[in-house]
Design goal:
Blueprint lengths: L1 E6 L3 E5 L3 E2 H7 L18 E6 L9 H7 L9 E3 L4 E2 L5 E5 L6
Parallel strand pairs: 1-7
Antiparallel strand pairs: 1-2, 3-6, 4-5, 4-7
The structure holds FE2/S2 (inorganic) cluster.
Length: about 100
């Protein structure tokens, strides 16, 4: 188990190691719009991992390719549908746009 903090809502939840980040966000009551069903093709689940980047799975080629097409990406950008929470350290994410509503 590790702690997942979700900004800007300020929600904190405990997450089992191996949980997909998208699922963890849904479990925490976040309203998510995922147009592609988690296939790294819509970009709707773009968020920032602001702390604990070693506590999540590494960037996949598909994720990297999609991020390259999005506006507003940075070195903390990830696609929630492609990230697994490893459980090795606490993680903080900042939801963006549609994900923060
Ligand atoms: S849900 Fe579409 S890219 Fe993540």
């Amino acid at each position: 188990m590790t702690t997942l903090t979700i900004l800007p809502a300020g929600v904190t939840t405990e997450v089992e190691a191996g949980t997909p980040l998208l699922q963890a966000l849904i479990n925490a009551g976040q309203q998510l719009i995922t147009k592609c069903g988690g296939k790294a093709s819509c970009g709707a689940c773009h968020l920032f991992v602001t702390q604990g980047r070693k506590g999540v799975s590494k960037l996949t080629p598909a994720e990297n390719a999609k991020l390259d097409t999005l506006v507003g990406i940075g070195n903390k950008s990830r696609l929630a549908c492609q990230v697994t929470v490893l459980g090795t350290e606490p993680v903080t994410v900042e939801l963006l746009g549609a994900l923060s509503g």
